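(Protein data)
===
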Amino acid sequence: MVILYGIKTCDTCRNALKWLDSEGIAHRYHDFRADGLDEATLSRWLAAVGWETLLNRRGTTWRGLSDQEKDSIDESRAAALMLARPALIKRPVFDLGGTFVVGFTDKEKERLRAQGR
């Protein structure tokens, strides 16, 4: 079963949920704002995909950070910021049973189709 991690107000996450349903891929949704995000889960993601892939630099939360926070970003600071402000995590994050996919482009959809059935 695929676990989709995201935020319920995220359009991309909503689209991903609809797509998973339409593809018949069994899934469970985890809203990391409402349901929380623990450090162990974030650490697994960081180890698998890297902090630069996981950090959402396009959203309003990133733009709201101070220039000092943005300029001094590294893995440990990024991890601390993502735990404190989950909207800084690029969404959605899919857990395919220990393999992680971040984002929702055609490339990610193909990986989900291959692994999710």
Notes: The first helix runs from residue 11 to 23. Helices lie at 11-23, 39-49, 51-54, 60-63, 67-71, 75-84, 106-116. The chain is about 50% helix and 15% strand. The chain has a mean pLDDT of 94.
